[in-house]
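#structure-requests
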Amino acid sequence: MRRAVLVIALAAASPLFADHVLLKGGGSLTGEITDQTADNVTIDIGAGSMTVSMATVVGIEKGVSPLQEFRSRSAGLADNDVDSWRALGRWATDHGLSAQAHEAYTRVHHTIPDDAEANRALGLVLYEGRWIPEEESYKARGFVKLGSEWMTPAERDAIMQEHHNREQANREAVLTEVAASEAARKEREAEEARIEEEERNRFDSLPTLGDPVYWGYGYAPAVWPSTPGRPR
């Protein structure tokens, strides 16, 4: 903890820039510090600036960051020095500085519009002698987009048809299951009705007085004939 406090104190006494801001939990930010107070530190990471609370900072390590090096190298280049800008664009790409790589290759593109490396780095493709955006080239060739993929209309239609067929098969499977369940239910009800009718008919044939009565466990005579020798 004493080392962290010392590093922060030294950084605060130095010019307000740094490369590495170490955070609690093991995270870190790399770039150029553009502002630092007792409460917060703001660091330019190349694609934008981030401000973090000093309460989350465990240390600040000074050094030359890739972003600082890019800015230092680009400051000394002439606009028409395409070889140097091209090389700097490769270097920025290798160091994960996408925005800066785009800046370097844009310089090349402005000077040499047909430069293949610069155009490809800027996301352009060569189509019929012109460098155009990739999406435009797909449309020019008659491709269509399905989701995030480009394909021919025939491929798209085949995929859509397969999807439709799969959904239709799923619907039919569900309907078949429902029909089978309904048929089983009707079969159970018919069997229960048959058993009930058989019991009714069986008791109808007995010598009883009155119509059969359902006693909860089944049908039985309303009045049973008396047994000889037993009081009724």
